[in-house]
Amino acid sequence: MTVFYKKLNELPKEMSGFIHMAGALADEMGINAYVVGGFVRDIFLGVKNFDVDLVVEGDGIAFASECARELDLKLVSHKRFGTATLHGLRGFKVDIASARREIYEKPAALPVVFKGHIKDDLFRRDFTVNAMAISINKHRFGQLVDFYDGHSDLKTGVIRALHANSFIDDPTRILRAVRFEQRFDFKIDKATLSWIKSAVRRKMLHKVQKHRLRDELILMFKESLPLKSLRRLWGLAGFSYIAPSLRFQKEWQRFFEEAAKKAGWFEEHFSHKRHLEPYVMYMSLFFYPLAHKELSQAMRDFAFHKGESSRILSFRENFTRVEKELSKKNVRGSVVYRIFEPLSYEVALLSAALSKSVLVLKRAQDFLFVYNGQRIHVKGEDLKRLGVKPGPHFKNILDELLYAKIDGEVKDKEEELALAQKLIQK
Ligand code: CTP
User: How far is CA 99 from CA 65, 96, 115, 133, 227, in A?
Assistant: First the structure.
């Protein structure tokens, strides 16, 4: 029994059961099947990975359909790429592809794809550590397929591209090299570094499709310590392909640390309220030095999702105002509420994290712990009974009642109704 056989069997029961089943099915269909890529890398590193990547030397979609039929799973297939995803497995997802060979006819463009063997499929990949496979057919279950010495690079902690053109073919791999190097505390190998530098000199990162760059950037911000990667990327490639005037900022060290602390604090106290997205906080910090016009341009060029770009822009537009208004003395609770309420939690927390005044932090805490959950007793029905017709006025009165409650000016329904009457008369 190989050590890899053992490793596959040590995976969570459902996952390892699925892999055995897929291997048996491949046997029945007379094709070779493998687990590949980051999934194999993470098995060796002992890192949990819930994205199982399978490659078959044959028709990946037909194989995926059989798996789906056998286990009664949902299948989403992408005919153009010969790939399919299985959904409905408990706690993990499976991507299945046909082994393929890729030819890059134009630098930085998508490759032309041909059916191929596992060796071709591994050769088209980014780094040796991501270019290993393990057989899952029964008679070879657990055999490592490692044409490019990925296992040895994994042991010594090296990020090594497979050939000199790797970053010309796919410049987003520059970001990936940095991201994996920093995530695993590895080192990019010397020749690979020189290939990266050459691709940077040829401005390949300016030529790649922006949405592909965006997806890699987002992955970088989702790492647990994104600043390490940003520093390394700045040293290797700068940021001009993201926005011409963007530079690495010395203050980021402190800002990112503060942002991480605030995000941790939020998770501790408010994870029930909403799932926080710290990566959006880091992206907001990253883009903050840009002038508004350049920032809007970058948001458009990269076509960030609305949820991301709106919070990045919101931080850029609101931070100075929030800082100015909330670092004053004697600010009423209702004013704090009105400033924070329209902002996302990410923007509010980041403002508190970066502010020079502790008052802003204190007020963000008051907002989250106290004001944010405040409710009034008076309802729309009560206002109707007092003769108010539904319309904008309606909401204004309810808002005023809430502000009064936050400021401690009304305590119960009776006092709220009395104030409502006064407001109606106004
Ligand atoms: N890959 C590649 N070049 C890219 C993107 C992906 O060669 N530009 C290959 C790598 O072999 C990688 C696999 O496709 O392992 C799967 O890609 P992805 O899911 O992005 O990467 P993972 O290695 O699984 O990384 P992560 O742990 O961040 O999910």
Answer: 16, 10, 6, 11, 36
